[in-house]
Amino acid sequence: MKSSLKRGKPTSIEAQDRTIKLMMLPLLLTIILLSTLPLLLSVFAAFTDWSAGIDVPINFIGLENFRYMLTDTQFFASFKLGLIWTLLVTSLTTAMGVGLSLLLNQEKRYMIPLKVIALSPWAMSPPAIAVIWTTLMNPNSGPVNQFLRTFNLPGGDIGFLEDPTLFFPTLIIIGAWALMPMITLAVLAALKTIPKELEESMEVDGANAFRKFRYLILPHIKPILVPLVALNLIWNFGAFDLIYVIVGSFPPPNSEIPIVFAFRQAFKYGEFGYASALGVAIAVAEILLVMAILRKQFKAMSEQ
Do the Cβ atoms of 277 and 44 come closer than 8 Å? Predict the structure, then answer.
């Protein structure tokens, strides 16, 4: 060992470290080229007047895009709508996922096909889900409106994704349905860890369904439910593909959440600099949201 060190030959540990670094180099370069570099360019573009066009000069304008953002009422309207969308979709997703997991937790044979159906949205991409729902809710040929008309129920002639009043509530239901399998599967796995003896003892003590859920089920699913809710808040605030495909080229008034609003500023109006500033603002909002959630989570863990 000493002789090899004197001659400058690498030890086996050093050689192994060098091999690991060489193997990680392509991954590191890929991350830099496809993630870090575009991120830095986007941040730089936020301080320029970059706009679409051939031979259009790009000038550094400092904080002008952010100053304009503070006076842009359309952006603040989209930001408010984004917060409402995030809170409502996350709340509905959590409630539906927990309720469905309680239903599927029963030891019945017919629950197997129901589990497959309930978890099927997870196997679909958001654009595919958007196309399916727009087809289902087509006011002329969609099965939803056909069903309502067949049984003379109200709403048979209403375009749920076209009516300005019903569009956003319908979009919230679609968003919750698309994300529900993640909550359902995680909570269902947590329910399987509850000892049968505890359930039987509570039933013997005469505990009703509410008390059983509050004192037995909720404490078991809370450790996994809290981080999932936090992730859903972040994902929903940055949701794009599902909403954009459903909204289409002609969205109803006041129906754009921040990320869709920023996308249109860039690729419809050609304001790349301003769109980059919007992206930076949205990213900062998501970071603050993550920090608030983590701070609350760490505080709860320290109190235990």
Answer: no
CA–CA distance, 255 with 264 (Å, rounded to integer)? 13
* 3-class DSSP state of 190: helix
Give the integer Cα–Cα distance in Å for 110 and 132.
Answer: 26
Q: Which whole-number Å values give the CA distances from 148 to 71, 177, 218, in the listed order?
A: 44, 20, 37
List the structure tokens of 194.
């509850």
Neighbours of 276 (CB within 10 A): 23
Lookup: tokens for 218:
């909720």
Whether CATH 1.20.58.100 fits 64-196+223-303: no
Q: Cβ contacts of residue 111 below 8 Å, gap of 6+?
A: 104
DSSP 171: H
Residue 60, strand partner residues: 48
Rounded Cα–Cα distance for residues 147 and 191 (Å): 36
Please name which of 286, 288, 263 lies closest in space to residue 276, comparing C-alpha atoms.
263
Task: Please give the helix or strand (H or E) that residue 113 lies within, else none.
Answer: helix 111-119
Per-residue confidence (pLDDT) for residue 127, from 0 to 100:
87
DSSP state of 251: P
What span, in angstroms and rounded, lies between the C-alpha atoms of 6 and 8?
A: 5
Dist CA 26 CA 30 (whole Å): 6
**Pairwise CA distance, residues 11 & 136, whole Å:** 65
List the chain residues with pLDDT less than 70: 1-11, 248-255, 297-298, 300-304
SS3 163: coil
Reported residue count of the chain is 304
Which among 227, 232, 136, 249 has a CA at the least distance from the CA of 175? Answer: 232
Domain boundary assignment for the chain: 64-196+223-303
Yes or no: say if 68 and 274 are a contact pair by the CB < 8 Å rule: yes
> Of 94, 85, 87, 88, which Cα lies nearest the Cα of 226?
94
